[in-house]
Every structure is written in structure tokens, then in C-alpha cells.
Amino acid sequence: MLLPPKVSAGVADGSITLAFRRWRAQDVKPGATFKSGGHVIRVDKVSVVDPAKITDADARRAGLKDAADVRKRLAPDESWKTYKVTLGYAGPDPRIALRESAELTDADVAAIDTRLERLDKASSHGAWTMRTLELIRQNPQRRAPDLAAIEGRETAPFKIDVRKLKGMGLTVSFPVGYEISARGLTYLQRTKRR
Questions:
Q1: How many helices (H) and strands (E) does the chain have?
Q2: For residue range 90-103, what is the model confidence (pLDDT) as tens digits?
Q3: If you placed Cys at 180, which of 122, 143, 163, 184 could pair as Cys (CB 3.0 to 4.6 Å)?
Q4: d(CA 135, CA 5)
């Protein structure tokens, strides 16, 4: 489930507890968690609602002005069900602490090596992990489409690959582009996988 940064921050500070979505099929289940805006967000409850019965109070709990604003933002296909999703804050995104932990043991480096090798072997486009890390290191905060073009790749799959590196704490995402994290820089300095 995607949330704008302002909404993620609102869930974290408790000012936002609801989201409304119109989906072809239910997209999230109670108990699920996802990362958004530096936070881990928990799905507490999901129910189908009649959009006409969404109240202004519901809208404010979703961080919006009024019920009309909620209805205006729903997906246009009215044959899809409208879901009321109750959200809670589950803690900070663990990737933030991970990417800032630059003290790597030999075991840490070996574990990263193993995970990157697995990603390379599973790839339909060949080994990409070290190339991508080096590309980001040389081009900090450069647009993802530009980086993908340098690699001769489509932007969307390239971004999916970078998210895998981010999940390992090796990169940091910005509104435009990426950088290598402190953990990633230490790894690049220590690795023998060149």
C-alpha cells in the first residue's frame, strides 16, 4: 500500500489513522505491515464501505479536508469496492538504522556477499548488483531514468533492483535519485567482489 510522505508522518504521530482506497480486489490484510516514509505502518483493520457514507470526521482521520475530498481521490472505477483501512504506527523503518551501521564485521561482509550473489544468480539480465552500487556511488542523486539508461535498462525494473539494495541497507533513496549509504560505502571499501 502506497502512502504519501505526509500521510506516513501523520500515521507515525497519530494524527492519521485511516486511509480509503478503491480496489478491484482487497490489496492489504489486517496484521500486514509495510514501510513508508521512514516508518513501519501496520494495517489494523480493513472493511468495505459505501463511499456515500464516508463522513467528514472519517476524512479528517485520513488527513483530508472532508468526505467529498476522499471520494474525489478514489479510483474512478465505481464497480470496484471501496475499502476503509485502519492504520497504526509499528515503529521506525529498520532500514534506516541498518544503512547507518557502517561498522561491518567479516561475517557481515560475507553475508552481504552471499545475498548479492544470490540476486545476481536469480537475475534474468545477468550480474547487476556491484555494477549498480558502483553506478550509484559515481552518480549520487541522479535521476533513476538516467541511471537506467546508462545501464541500457528500463526504468521500472531498474528501480525494483535498487529497492532490493535499499532493503539490505546499502543505498538511500531521495526525492530524485539515490546515494550509497554509510553501510554501502564500507561494504564497497571492504569487499573483494570487484
A1: 9, 6
A2: 998 887 878 888 88
A3: 184
A4: 27
φ and ψ of 166, to 5 deg: -65, -40
Assign 182 to helix, strand or coil: helix
The answer to whether 41 touches 33, Cβ cutoff 8 Å, is yes
For 157, residues 6+ apart whose C-beta sits below 8 A from its C-beta are 125
Taking CA atoms, 158 is separated from 23, 36, 46, 152, in Å, by 26, 20, 32, 10
Query: Measured between alpha carbons, how far is 35 from 159 in angstroms, rounded to an integer?
Result: 16
Residues in CB range of 52: below 8 A, 6 or more apart: none
**Could you report the per-residue pLDDT of 137-183, keeping only the tens digit for each?**
999 999 999 999 999 999 999 999 999 999 999 999 888 999 999 99
**Cell, residue 159:** 528501480
All structural domains of the chain:
5-92 (2.30.130.30), 95-190 (1.10.10)
Compute the residue count for the chain: 194
Within 13 Å and on the Cβ side, how many CA atoms surround 74? 25
